[in-house]
């Protein structure tokens, strides 16, 4: 009887292991499609139907990008994989980025099905796990690291910082952080982390009415940070800290969110692969198809102590090296401005802000239609806080 | 000891049942995910996680759309479900359009994996069938009709025309055609069909270098048709008819294609649901984040006989009814221009063309940055032919 019991216990253990393994593998989609291709060790430009990178490597032949394969060495962090962040992650995966690190603490719901990416059978699963499974299937060459927690709590914040500093390929710093969250607090946290670590990041936002959105580049000390906006300017909706209210159903559209995701990843590709002009700020108003382009310089009165420090460092560097592009990493070279293929001229660079340190000239894009006033730009920046 | 044994046996039985259930469900759907939700007969604005339409119906509460559910009565045709068209179809499906009719004759290849939508396990399947299966899974409320043929051959053209006239819900005319093809010949065919049938359509295109694209509204007689561009103006790449060459690998990016798809569906939603300003032309240059907005009036010298007829009909209608919006369908009311939330002014309406019938004033959007010359607009139009 005792040996029977031991045998049963042994059998039980094996079955439990099998069950766990099955549950693990079926995780987000109980019906995962089979992996359809093997990993590819080197990107090829060969024009055959079976090459998933031929249309990307063709960017080199087209004269758009000098070294496309450099993308495989890049690590991008995506904070928030909802309506914008999930599409951002998918685009970067299809572009063959080296590594993606995803942060989110939400679950997929049927109420998310009006945006791209998640599918109904993933309802109930964590967004990062559902995303990871889909992304690995789409492109097994991309390393995906998923964190299912809220970055703003004290415990998680330290781990979040650690991933920014050591999460890159080979344990190095990541190359770029992309904020795709839907609330003020999380943006403040990302801003603080990136100011502290001197890390370039881009913010994105879509308004609650679903018909406008924007992206913004933040390069500590060189551009405005998220807290640089004068506190006197608040957007029409009221207190920015309470804008995302529980129980209030914000509208959203797959169009606006897909477009904002596209802008964010396009700017990311231009930044990482050094082509075109990286935009400092790009706003989209869907009702009028109006696009706002700016870059804001940092506010010397910014409430973020670290931002002020970065500004001083940047000014010292500019004074020492002359008024050229800050090298975010040593190997980075100056952004090459490609010719305007349509030969259309738009307004040149202007001083767009009311709080600009006199000697700093960003070399990223700051073009603006001539009719935009300084007040408009500040209002836009403030409105962004509410997205 | 005996009771312990009984408990173990009981536990073992439960685990075995669980394992059998898991094995059954995973083998039954080895590739296709299970249908995750039932059809929904009426769109609800109720704010619950299980409602896939809550964020869309919220557009009403936000004051953006008056009657969102009207979308369920609309039928949209998508010609070409490649890098742009597949994302267009997914966005419209997630928006809950009544019916989609898809045309394509291509197969999914791994070489398409650098764009959104198709996944590696679909390689080898026809694009329309692969698309249909994914779309039905995402939103079973949308009726999907898929045609796996080339619309430009004589046999297929008649069937194509029939679907435009009778493919709508309840056998009626469709509401809008969207061209997402990648070649000149197919656009000429769509243009001819829509001129003949007096059907509004929108064109889209992405350039071979992957970093620019555009959308354009064509309303027979009221706006320029695809053939209205003066033949003397040809784009930089040479003969527009031979631009898409076999064996030449065009570059493409998920960003640019996703953005163009977003613009096309956004314009579609504004057109079908009557909100915001429907754009006549919207161009996107990714390198500079430059956006070109225009609308071109029809060319009285157009080579398309039917276009000339439609122009005369339109002029007669304008003369009889006054210079207001043409009613494409009788129940259509005037497009309401929402207020510009940012309070930013851009250049007003101008006569942008060199071949404009004097008395016709389109009431759709024709705003243009003040620095754009007439020659630029014509060049843009010509360039579009090459996309």
Automatic annotation (TrEMBL), chains A, B:
Domain THIF-type NAD/FAD binding fold: residue ranges: 53-303
Keywords: ATP-binding, Metal-binding, Nucleotide-binding, Ubl conjugation pathway, Zinc
Presence of keyword Metal-binding: yes
SUPFAM superfamilies, sorted: Activating enzymes of the ubiquitin-like proteins
Cellular-component GO terms for this entry: cytosol
GO terms under biological process: protein ufmylation
Metal-binding is among the record's keywords: yes
GO MF annotations, alphabetized: ATP binding; metal ion binding; UFM1 activating enzyme activity
InterPro entries: ThiF/MoeB/HesA, ThiF_NAD_FAD-bd, Ubiquitin-activating_enz
Similarity field: Belongs to the ubiquitin-activating E1 family. UBA5 subfamily.
Entry protein name: Ubiquitin-like modifier-activating enzyme 5
Organism annotation: Pristionchus fissidentatus
């Amino acid at each position: 009887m005792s040996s029977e019991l031991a045998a049963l216990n042994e059998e039980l253990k094996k079955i439990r292991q099998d069950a766990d393994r099955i549950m693990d593998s079926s995780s987000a989609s109980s019906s995962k499609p089979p992996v359809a291709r093997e990993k590819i060790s080197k990107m090829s430009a060969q024009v055959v139907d079976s090459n998933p990178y031929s249309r990307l490597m063709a960017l080199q032949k087209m004269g758009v990008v000098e070294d496309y394969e450099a993308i495989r060495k890049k690590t991008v962090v995506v904070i928030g994989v909802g309506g914008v962040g999930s599409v951002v992650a998918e685009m970067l995966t299809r572009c063959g980025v080296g590594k993606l690190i995803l942060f989110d603490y939400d679950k997929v719901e049927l109420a998310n099905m009006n945006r791209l990416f998640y599918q109904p059978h993933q309802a109930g699963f964590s967004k990062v796990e559902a995303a990871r499974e889909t992304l690995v299937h789409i492109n097994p060459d991309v390393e995906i690291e998923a964190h299912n927690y809220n970055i703003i709590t004290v415990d998680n914040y330290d781990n979040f910082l650690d991933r920014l500093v050591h999460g890159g390929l080979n344990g190095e710093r990541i190359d770029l952080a992309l904020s795709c969250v839907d609330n003020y607090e999380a943006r403040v946290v990302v801003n603080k982390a990136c100011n502290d670590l001197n890390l370039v990041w881009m913010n994105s936002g879509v308004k609650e009415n679903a018909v406008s959105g924007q992206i913004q580049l933040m390069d500590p000390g060189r551009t405005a940070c998220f807290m640089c906006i004068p506190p006197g300017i608040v957007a029409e909706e009221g207190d920015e800290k309470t804008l995302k209210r529980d129980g209030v159903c914000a509208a959203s559209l797959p169009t606006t969110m897909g477009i904002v995701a596209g802008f964010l990843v396009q700017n990311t590709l231009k930044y990482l692969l050094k082509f075109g002009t990286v935009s400092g700020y790009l706003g989209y108003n869907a009702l009028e198809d109006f696009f706002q382009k700016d870059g804001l310089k940092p506010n010397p009165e910014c409430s973020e102590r670290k931002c002020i420090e970065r500004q001083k460092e940047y000014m010292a560097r500019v004074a020492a090296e002359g008024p050229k592009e800050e090298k975010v990493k040593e190997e980075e070279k100056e952004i090459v401005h490609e010719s305007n293929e349509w030969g259309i001229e738009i307004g040149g660079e202007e001083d767009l802000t009311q709080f600009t340190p006199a000697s700093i000239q960003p070399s990223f894009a700051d073009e603006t239609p001539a009719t935009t006033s300084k007040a408009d730009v500040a209002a836009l920046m403030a409105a962004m806080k509410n997205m």
